[in-house]
Design a protein that fits this description.
This protein starts with 12 loop residues before the first strand and ends in a 33-residue tail after the last helix. The strands form three sheets. It has a seven-stranded mixed barrel. It has about 300 residues and is an alpha+beta fold. The protein has a domain of about 100 residues: Ku70, Chain: A, Domain 2 (Beta Barrel).
Length: about 300
């Protein structure tokens, strides 16, 4: 399932999936190991690490942690102050159950609603009901929508089968997703029309670039370059810095010409597709002899 050879972290949550009267003991693991290059802030005079301090801008004094409270701004410089005891009365009850509320078609869920991915693994004594739920969801093509409390925060989650595992993705709530119709440039598309010829060439271009999804072929080239640069500097190499000229905005090309040029470029890079060569006809034999094979037809790969 995983694409990284790194060791799977320890479970961050232990509980059970509940659907109907069936309980499935499970353990929750993060499904991703995000790769990033982190830098510390230093003083260029002596490379001393900068300390972050909590300063009151009115007095210029550092504020001790025990004096810090939470405030919600309702107007410029006007806050409603909330203390921890008041907020704790609203905290979700700390249960250890993933309560399934609905089963829905996966195709009905816009991927924009997915937030952070996790894996669910069977807990002690949970292998059989886990397998049963996994197989049932795979056979029906359904995704479970549930609620769970993780670290005192209630989350909406989607649970779906992925091979021999259940994936569990936290989800955004509907009011957290911006409506694209509110974006002015997108609303203007209603008046834009394309021609049949433009669409035909665009589809040919898509088919020419189509191929199977291979996640391993993509990598974070910027991160790799940063790490290589750090390694060179750590080895004592002096890095020459050259100013990169600012690129001028390119003129918008003629759409039809750009489509055709793109298609020609892709076809040229991959070489013209030739039909399979015919085999020379064999000498006539009795009727039992097989007929010559027809040439194979090349078809575009499906994405």
């Amino acid at each position: 399932m995983g694409y990284h050879p790194s060791t799977m972290p320890r479970a961050i949550w232990t509980g059970a999936i509940s659907f109907g009267l069936v309980t499935v003991p499970v353990r929750l693991y993060s499904a991703v190991n995000r790769k990033t290059v982190r830098f510390n802030q230093l003083d260029s005079a002596d490379n001393g690490r900068i300390a972050q301090k909590r300063i009151n801008p009115r007095t210029g004094e550092e504020v001790p942690y025990d004096r810090i409270v939470k405030g919600y701004e309702i107007a410029p410089d006007s806050y409603v102050v909330m203390d921890n005891d008041e907020l704790e009365t609203l905290e979700a009850e700390k249960t250890h159950t993933i309560d399934i509320e609905d089963f829905v078609e996966e195709s009905e869920i816009d991927p924009i609603f997915y937030d952070h991915p996790y894996y669910l693994a069977p807990g002690a004594g949970g292998a059989k009901p886990y397998r049963l739920l996994l197989d049932a969801m795979r056979e029906t093509g359904k995704v479970a929508i549930a609620r769970v409390v993780i670290r005192s925060k209630e989350s909406l989650v989607a649970i779906r089968p992925a091979g021999d595992a259940l994936e569990c993705s936290t989800m955004l709530f509907a009011d957290e997703v911006n409506d694209p119709e509110r974006i002015e440039e997108l609303s203007a598309l209603a008046d834009v029309k394309t021609t049949d010829r433009e669409l035909s060439i665009a589809k040919q271009l898509v088919d020419s670039l189509a191929g199977p999804w291979e996640p391993g072929k993509y990598s974070d080239s910027y991160r790799e370059q940063v790490l290589a640069l750090i390694e060179r500097k750590a080895a004592g190499e002096e890095i020459s810095v050259q100013e990169t000229p600012q690129a001028e905005p390119a003129a918008v090309p003629d759409l039809m010409a750009a489509l055709q040029a793109s298609l020609d470029q892709v076809r040229g890079a991959s070489g013209p597709k030739q039909p399979a060569a015919r085999k020379p006809k064999a000498a006539k034999k009795p009727a039992a002899a097989a007929a010559p094979k027809k040439p194979r037809q090349n078809t575009p790969a499906k994405g």
